Amino acid sequence: MTLKKNKKSINLGLLIRTFLFLFLFLPFFVSAETIEKKYASLKLLNKTTNKVSEKNILVNSKIAWETLNIEVLHCASTPSTEIPEDYVLIDIYDNINNENINIYRGWMISSSPDVTPLENPIYDLWLVDCINDKAS
What we know:
Number of domains: 2
Distance between the termini: 67 Å
Number of strands: 8
Structural class: alpha+beta
Mean pLDDT: 83
Largest sheet: 5 strands, antiparallel
Shape: globular
Helix content: 10-25%
Strand content: over 45%
């Protein structure tokens, strides 16, 4: 009975060490550089009017969009050799009732808008793409 217990603890220890190795060192071997882009292409749904609009916002600039003030701080894509993915770092303020309230600050991912959503009763906002020119 003690032999089986020792085998289980040895296997568990090996499993934990393998997991730690993969978790700590594999990202250094597998990760690829992202490609910085000039514009973030975003879509906004106004839930009260059921209207969807799209804008291309220059990185490091601010725009007013309905009652929202949106600042795009960074936009990048994975290389063409990787699975397509876009990332945007944004800061959003809602200027409702003449108060500029921060309602979102963080990263959005194009393939998973529900992972880091804008939680707002009036608006849904999501990243469509990171692009280099407005015409794309």
